[in-house]
Design brief:
Helices cover about 25% and strands about 20% of the residues. It has about 90 residues and is α+β, with helices and mostly antiparallel strands. The longest helix has 12 residues, at about 40-50.
Amino acid sequence: MIKRSGLPKHVTTFLDRHGKRRVRGRRHGVTYYFKSAPGTDGFLMEYQEWLAGETPRVEIGATQTKPRSVAALIVEYYQSAEWPVLT
């Protein structure tokens, strides 16, 4: 379904804090920032992959932690099954 803005369902555009136009898809608590411009073949392929759940998850800060460091240990703990059940 195409919205009035010409974008597919669940897709919006906005200006980020640096003034750059971003294209974002949000569905069921999952946010994805598209790399291709809307209206291109690459965007349509990327959109279909996103709807199918085939886009890779981006781990925030993964490139900023050194292996076997305290920061890497904390990241592993936050991603473990024990972290969400703490009260």
